[in-house]
Design brief:
mainly alpha
Length: 72
Amino acid sequence: MSEPRETAPEPADDVPVEYPAEQEASGPGDSGDEANALRFTEEEQLIHEQIRRHREERERRERLERERQQRG
């Protein structure tokens, strides 16, 4: 059997997520800035998705453990 391990605290759901402001295209060099801003938001979305999946998996394990304790 494995023992519970210490993990970093879960981020709070009520913490606002700040995304980069939209940038106005004022010249040909701005497309790189827009691509970087878009990539940043996509990376943040992936991070939040990972956090959500981790939280759901933790809740599922806790629920299974509670059910196992109630039976045995």
